[in-house]
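Support request, please re-run this one:
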Amino acid sequence: MTTDQQRAILTIALLAAFVDGANDEREREQIRRLAATLGGEPGAPDLAALYQQVLLKRVRLEDAAAALPDSEHRQLGYEMAVCVCDADGRMTDAERDFLARLAALLQLDSEVTAPLDRQAEDMAALAASVAPPVPAAAGPVVAATAKSTEAELDRSVLNYAILNGALELLPQSWASMAVIPLQIKMVYGIGKEYGYELDQGHIRELLATLGVGLTSQYLEQVGRKLLGGLLGKVAGRMVGQLGRAATGVAFSFATTYALGQVARRYYAGGRQMNSALLQESFRNLLEPAKQLQARYLPQIEQRAASLDAGQIMSLVRGA
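Re-run finished. Output below.
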């Protein structure tokens, strides 16, 4: 894939991210930082400039679609747009209109688009079902003791981190959609360990406070796959070179591991940590978590080799 084709697909993904205007300032800032980071990689398009052009409406969807003459790349562009629109667990009318327009511009018929739409919708629905709405907690908030041992909680967080790192080695772009619901599921489970029944709104707000945005995180995951040449249609097999995927694997492993450890501290302490302390704790854990990822790379590779679509859905669902 050429740099121009990468740029076109990432343009489509960014346009999809902003089409409904629902992203708050924290999410926009995370996407801006992502564009600056990915754009600094060797051979990558200038994504920082592209981000500005998208915000200022100086790029057109028609031009991005026209830059993708190959059917495989057109399908990939559409698939990424669908997943971006579904990353926050809901699809707005504006996003549906955007996807219908994109499909027409890419000359994709319903036989191609319907399975992609269904796959993303199924994953988004699973994400929404992980933490159902619950009544607000009453009474004073106090420090709590977990039902499991410290070693068991550590092992659970590590297993989630290994699984999410493994998802970065899969060639399908929708596989990265599972990272977010699995993180939500992990935090939900940690909260229950300390006696809290959490809902989606609380968990998503915690993730946003830490800088783990839903749309921006998905964009980072698939953006790294795209620039690393890992996206492909070889069902059930890893493609590309592992060395080029290392950054993406480290990102998802470290983000999940740091999130789990911060959640443990937060709920053990009675949810008393303020936003600044939560963010500092998360940042301080990220670098050690990236170093830890190198130790567990063989387990991550082994996990990736055994994953397929059905297993991923079952893991999110909890079966």
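The radius of gyration is 19 Å. Residues 133-317 form one domain.
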